[in-house]
Amino acid sequence: MDKEKWEPKIVAFVCNWCTYTGADLAGTSRMKYPANAKMIRVMCSGSIDPVFIIKAFERGADGVLVSGCHPNDCHYNAGNFHARRRWDFFHELLDFIGIEKERLQFSWISASEGKKFADVIAKVTKDIKTLGPFTAYKKMNSEFTAVFPEIQEVVKETIIKEKETV
Amino acid sequence: MNNIYMPHLAEIKEVIDESPDTRTFRLKFKDSDTAERFDFKAGQFAEYSAFGDGESTFCIASSPTRKDFLECSFKVYGKVTQALHRLNKGDTIGIRGPYGNWFPLDELKGKNLLFIAGGIGIAPVRCVIDNVLDMRNEFKDLTIICGARSVSDLIYKQEIKEWKARTDIKTIITVDPGGENASWDGEVGFVPAVIEKTAPPSDNTAVILCGPPVMIKFTMPVLTKLGFKDEDVYTTLENRMKCGLGKCGRCNIGNVYVCKDGPVFTYAQIKRLPQEF
Amino acid sequence: MEELREYAKELLEKKEVAAVIGYTQVSENRTKPIIITDPADASKLVFNEYCLNNLSVYLTKARINAMCRTKDKIMKLAICAKPCDVHSIVALIQENQVHRNDIVIISFNCHGAVKDFGYEFSGENLASKCITCETHKPLYFDKIFGEEKETPKASDAALARIEELESMTHEERFEYFNNEFDKCIKCYACRAVCPLCYCQRCITDKAIPRWIESSSHQRGNFSWNIVRAFHLSARCTGCGECDRACPMDIPLSLINRRMAMEAKKSFSYVSGRSLETPTLVGSFNEKDSDELFM
Amino acid sequence: MNFKMDEKIISKEDLLKICQDVIAKGHTLLTPGMNEYFPVKDISQINLNSSALPAKTSYKSYVFPRSEPVLYYKRSKDDVQLIDVNVDGKNIIILGAKPCDTNSISIMRHLFNWDYSDEFFNLREKHFIIIGLMCSHYDEYCFCTSVGSSPVSDKGSDIFLIPLDENNFALRIITEKGKEFIEPYAEYLKPGDETRSKQVTENVKLPEVVFDSKEVYEWLGENFESPKWEGIGNLCLSCAQCAFVCPVCHCFDIVDEDYSYSEGRRMKNWDGCQFGNFTLHASGHNPRDIQSKRYRQRVNHKFRYYVDKFGEILCTGCGRCSRGCPVSIDIKEIVSNCKESV
Description:
The structure holds four protein chains of four kinds.
Chain B: E1 8-19, E2 22-29, H1 32-37, E3 45-50, E4 54-59, E5 70-75, H2 79-85, E6 92-99, H3 105-108, E7 112-118, H4 122-133, E8 142-148, H5 157-165, E9 169-175, E10 187-188, H6 191-198, E11 205-210, H7 213-225, E12 233-236, E13 252-253, E14 256-257, H8 258-261, E15 264-266, H9 267-272
Parallel strand pairs in B: 7-8, 7-11, 8-9, 9-10, 11-12
Antiparallel strand pairs in B: 1-2, 1-6, 2-5, 3-4, 3-6, 12-15, 13-14
Helix pairs in contact in B: 6-7
Chain C: H1 2-13, E1 17-27, E2 30-36, E3 45-46, H2 62-68, E4 76-81, H3 83-94, E5 103-108, H4 128-131, E6 143-145, H5 157-167, H6 170-182, H7 189-193, H8 218-232, H9 241-245, H10 252-267
Parallel strand pairs in C: 1-4, 4-5, 5-6
Antiparallel strand pairs in C: 1-2, 1-3
Helix pairs in contact in C: 5-10, 6-8, 8-10
Chain D: E1 7-11, H1 12-24, E2 28-32, E3 37-39, H2 60-63, E4 67-75, E5 80-84, E6 92-97, H3 99-113, H4 119-126, E7 128-133, E8 159-163, E9 168-173, H5 176-182, E10 190-191, H6 194-203, H7 213-222, H8 228-235, H9 241-245, E11 252-258, E12 263-270, H10 291-310, H11 320-324, H12 331-336
Parallel strand pairs in D: 2-6, 6-7, 7-8
Antiparallel strand pairs in D: 1-9, 1-10, 2-3, 4-5, 4-12, 8-9, 11-12
Helix pairs in contact in D: 3-4, 7-10, 8-10
């Protein structure tokens, strides 16, 4: 794949109360940020199960962003505190298993931080771009891609299209 | 390679909502050749697939004598039935089958038949009833006793209406106490109690019994009391199945594989099996 | 040994406990778990270096707990536990799966166990958990047997392996673990023997939706092993049963150990050591580090 | 089809030459290691040791893979397209298979071929050439002699090897398939000496016969409700290690697996009767809801149901299930002590 043209696929799990609203603000403020992140809104950063992230990698994500409210701002009081401990372990685990730390990133973004949201997305995209596609994980799907060669094509096409829209 | 796990594709021609959680699909094979060759007998089952969610086993609910379409009815319980429930008219599903044995209608010719069904158990019974009605003159008196939890849970309302309209069958429909509504004109009471009240004489009569395990458990003593022999009571076992081909081992009870040696058993046969169903 | 049998017999005779879960000898250097309900069987109990099973896994089994409830009274359950198994029991109590008052912990002064059945007890064949063990005397117990003895010395090969892995690049590590996980046949023996895998329905058994593929190809194996390791991180007490049970010899406890190291480094927490503290992942501190978050 | 009397002698060196040729031809050559039968890359990996314990797993997964796609599907808005899979008929030569493993394929064949034949199994099995090796070592878990086999049994092998001395093997050609395989290598074969091989086989120490399978069959029929099952059920932890390392356990599951929104495949995966959800109905009803019932099913299926259905015991006596059981439940001990009171 042409590395110049290649655009990473990033899945962002964002908290409904802060980050999602922050993203909204970024949008309504007409801030520019890469279109690589696919947002998945969840009710709280504490409600994101690590299997969501594994599934994202399974289905071809190159990087994942998890974002929630700042500590003490949680809509459910302690959701993000619980999440913080959990993510620490999950992050270490993935690192030990051999998944680069940059593939899974975390942030606290409040509803008023539209600018920060744009910056975080830009940073994550840049980091993943430097890392390149997550081929190690994608190799596990080789049997599928052998039967459905068009999957690869579809992926390529969407990447190009996405780039054009950016 | 002859892949025994490869289903035939069929189109959903019609979706009939039988009750809030039960649906009937009217299916037509996409391949006319398959449609021609797909030959089954009353009581056999098939594996229906919702691609992406898996396969589920239920009986073929339409009569083998009515070949222009295939019907199946299912209640929403698990992953696959939920997925099937999401499908609409025009969608494609997969069918593998027919599998298993069948009700020995040829042996039952010249006998009186008593059909007893409870809940979704009416689906395999309906297949037999329709089959028998298509060769009505080969059988003597027919009685249908059909129960449901409540009026809204009663499925095949249309068919029941047709059966009721006929004079050559006695049709008794009952709902569990508390399940009736203001306009209900049938019986009220549990199936075993209704059988005790309304069953025909037991001589020269075969019983075709399908329903939830608890209903069968309470119905059998009543039938024995009324003089029905265990050999004359035909019922089906509904074990969990995956392959339908006697391979996957899930439906194994004792030395039978329900998917191949069953699902139709006489009560006498069932009594000899380990009680693991 | 006789004292242990006498004590077990007494407990059963007095009907203080419904059953004693302990070890019995199978052959020279092999034991197996036994659940004793009849006082006459108490003579079958043994304790030695070949008692490998972590019996606390039975404490959360419904069928074992059902034995304790008779018509007129609720009885306790006695369990033989090595000092390291007591950690698992403590973790179960911390997580409210077992109540301290419902069990009688019969423990031992321990000087190590063999790595697997069929080996002679020596420093070379010492189980990896025993090499770094600091609790030769149980932290909690109701009755203790056995005399204190010196543990044979051995080098910590597991730690060396972890350090070796840490020095690899991510690609190499990924390949290493992917190859290891590829061997997995999904028999779930690791889940079955783990005292802390007590969920009534495991996430892999849930089909709607199916998060972890049940197939044992690379992808499904990878997901399962990550999830298993994650669910045990900061909870695993390091009993090493998963390693022993795995028919394919996947180094599961290596990952568990690495996560325990993380818990110790970042939170100064060791699982299953104190009944007074809450579990690490079940609680939080507002002052936890924010380093990870942008 | 019986070539039993056709016995030759081959030196280890020549045997390895054959192996070299087999690998050069691109066939897969499997040989037992400590843990599993592995594909040989270099002949130095081959260790024809008759006194090794059975590998932890059998070569079952080469004929009945632990996970295999049975079909691929592609969904579009109102249509589904199915893509069939092809089993590649690659020749697999298994060198040094234990007599307790050679038996397994012929036992499983009944199941995969009654009425409907599972071509996934058949096509793979057709390309198997099993070179058995006499076994001269047993441990406390071996019980092949109790299930009608023996360490010198050539049942299921296409070619059977008996070590005569350090460098020579007696080579028996058992089946037509074996004959076809060895014919091109006739130059390596020296005329056999049956008295020598007989001497070796007669001197092999046999594991003690610990139970009579007919008695076990009878006992199982009469003791379905025995309190014994409960005792075992209390100890068993419901993993499927025993089923998955078993050379003849064959239960499986069929599941769909999406790759993306529209594409996916249907998989046939190993499943074990010891799992609680093996027989769980969608309604929540479970015919074998407790572990004792599930263990009872396992033993009954092996020693009674399968005999009823196909006339053979679903067990080769390799002892793998017991050797690997995390709680040391020994199936041999259970069936041999079946008559004793609880």
